Amino acid sequence: MFDSQNCTVVPDDARTDPGVAGAGILLSFIITAGLSIVLSAVIILYELRGQSKAKISRKMLQSMSDQQIITGIGIQCVGLAKMTTMIPYHFFIVWMLSVLSTATHIATLLALVNDFRRDWVLRWLRQFLMFVNLVLSCVSGIFVLMSVMKGLEPTLPIACVWRVDDRPKPDDAALSVAGTIAVLAGNCIVFVLGVWYLHSKRQPWVKTVQVFGLVVLVAIAVGSTVRVILMSQAFGDPDLPLRGASEKDWSFGQLLSVLLLIMPLISAVEIVRGEMKVPSPLPDDRKPLFHEEEKHNVRQSFQPNPFWGSQASLFKK
Fold first, then answer.
1. Where in the chain are the domains?
2. CA separation for the pair 41, 104 (Å, rounded)
3. pLDDT top residue among 142 and 276
């Protein structure tokens, strides 16, 4: 149980937390996000030129994106569960990793939107994970915002933002508050646009959206990565006293996080060897997703949810 006494006595330093800000954890997020965005750009470029179906790249991208969004949700759950002991430094790193996760799976959505439209299960599962990630990110962002607005001491637990009075703030507090609010609003806007884009059946300007959206997401990902690297003990110089240097050490858990990046490569090898089949993408920018004469055809390129609406007639087939 959280004791209010923890908010009145300010410790001289704080413990490190390699499970959240360790070198392997951060590298796993950064490498996965970087590879996913690069693969998204490659797929979009290939589709713009009409040169290749990029089956291997599509499969690797989907695997990495799934890994990124699940780990992003997981690390945010850990951060919120440990908010009575986790200091703002670690909590902010968790939040930045969630922003990096958001940029990754939205970039994947831009590149693989036709795949998700073709299978309603994948589409709604992706939406559900995006919504969970958004809710957790907004809750974490509110804690970060309150810690900045109240000038919370860096060695106090993040949960103390609801128990302490306003304290002296640094000179750049206003800029930090504005930036935090902008990130919170951006997460909500990106989610709404992503869901709309996923369900829109007629998009003659789909390539423009893909290119512009990818540029914005690259900027978000780069900004989050640079912020994490500069402030973390593992790679940068934190602005608070930390007890020990365990976040720089490479333990089994840190190595395991990086080794899991091999899994998408195994899927790529299976595709090359013919052990796994990947359907070809459909040129939905040149062919309408939903034809009048195909409205009762189950094999249409935009597969609707069969549990409600006019598409319930699919069960009558």
1. 15-285, 287-317
2. 12
3. 142
Q: Residue 24: what are its φ and ψ, rounded to 5°?
A: -65, -40
Whether the Cβ atoms of residue 272 and residue 36 lie closer than 8 Å to each other:
no
Task: Calculate mean pLDDT across residues 117-130.
Answer: 83
Return the HEC string of 77-134. HHHHHCCCCCCHHHHHHHHHHHHHHHHHHHHHHHHCHHHHHHCHHHHHHHHHHHHHHH
Element containing residue 14 per DSSP (H, E)? strand 14-15
pLDDT, one tens digit per residue, over 170-225 is 667 788 888 889 888 988 888 888 888 877 766 556 677 788 888 988 998 999 99
Q: Rounded to whole angstroms, how far apart are CA atoms 3 and 88?
A: 18
Residue with tokens 């996913």: 36
Dump pLDDT digits (tens) for 72-115.
898 899 889 988 888 999 999 999 999 998 888 888 888 888 77
Q: How many CB atoms lie within 10 A of CB 208?
A: 11
CA distance 284 to 44: 13
Q: Write out the two tokens for 83.
A: 């908010």
**How far is Cα 111 from Cα 17, in angstroms, rounded to an integer?**
35
CA distance 24 to 106: 24
Give the tokens for residue 289. Answer: 């997703």
Tell if the pTM clears 0.70, that is, is over it. Answer: yes
- Return the sign of the alpha-carbon dihedral for residues 306, 309, 310, 315: positive
Q: Strand, helix or coil at 28?
A: helix
Check: CB of residue 71 under 8 Å from CB of residue 100. no
d(CA 177, CA 175): 5
pLDDT value at 278 more than 70: no
Q: How far is CA 315 from CA 123, 215, 290, 299, in A?
A: 19, 42, 18, 14
What integer is the mean pLDDT of 125-135? 89
